[in-house]
Amino acid sequence: MQLSASFTRALLSGFDRAYADLVRAATRSTGSREKAGELVHETWLKLAEHAQAAKPVCGQVDAPGEQPDDTTAYLAVMTQHMALDAHRRRQRHGRYLDAAVLHEQLAPSHAPDVADSVMYRQALAVLEAALAGLPARSRAAFVAHRIHGDKQPVIAQQLGVSLNTVERDLIQASACVEDALQRWRGNSLATARRAGRRRSLAALLSLAGVGVGGHLGWQQWQQYRQQHVQWQARWHSPRGQQVRHALPDGSSLLLDALSQAQLQYFAARRSVQLLQGAAFFEVARDESRPFEVQAAGLRITVLGTRFGVEITPMGRGPSQVSVQVESGRVRVEPLVAEGEAVLQAQGGGFVQTLEAGQALQWAAGDRSPELSPVESAASWRHGELVFRHSTLGQALERLARYAPFAIEVTPDAARLPLSGRVRIGEAQAWLQALPRALPVQVQQQSDGSLVLSRRNRS
Prior knowledge:
The chain is α+β, with helices and mostly antiparallel strands.
């Protein structure tokens, strides 16, 4: 159904009065007051987006449209439809995950189990010891030929010997290494020779990959597991919209307006970089793959929990990071970064564990974080912004992610201290009421934007 601009504005104007009823109705549908609050807020965002898109251009007059007979009833139906859509999305995602799990179970595994890993390391240690006992020239010829893949004529030229000498050295080295491997397996030398040296030796060398050291193959396998990306995505959200994404492990990510995140899943860890804005995470527990979030020099590590992370720009100084935990526990620590690769925790830094109902604020350069209780983690999910020991400039920059009009503030007014709560759906009314609480004046420009400046003392 296509709504007219006037009809949409009428719904928005009555949204505040209907809010409590909408939350109660959505709670009955979803069984969760928290999810109900998110649905009601998404309903407001849809209406605000539609009102902005349907706004008449300069010089045009919005045609009068039909007005709703019962604003609350109409909004309740909209919220109910959005709840149904969300339920269908969860069902589709569940079917996708079931198919992915089945595919993973049927697909051959390339990761060795614990017994195989120990065996590989023992075999490589035997290979290293056997090579160490060879004459230097035989060892050099063997490594160049079997490990680096050099041709025998090239090896002969490098060592300054004849081609026949290189062939004899390779035969001697291969026999010594194969005999050592067969003794490690517990086979007699006669049985080993009948089985064929080249086959078993080639199998070990292919298993070891490149490298001769006893643990080098294992280290390379571990490095592969750490660096090989199994799944990745990069998401951003537009102004005035919150966007939810389902993750392949059953977790979910809710991006606030004007936010951006990059995700990478590895065999042994799940990694998210919050590049800007705010996000709320619902993490599925997986002890073998911790979930890690990096944001403006801070690392948050969890196994399974619900928590929010937000980056707040601080002008010329380093950005401030806020972590708010709704359930479970998270570990927070600062990082030293070079490009996008995290190197190590800062010397003399901190490691802080946050429980449910706790919040942390930190900026690069701080020696310790600021801890505080929090009533509702990531309150923006429920259509509310909470400012604590902030400035007017920070509050307006945060609110601008949702406002369908530009907001400007002069430097002297931006420095005014501010604490309190703002309903996102009532942003314009809150801005117009600011002069009653702060020494500022609000001026509306011809293009619809607002300019806030400090009021002259008289």
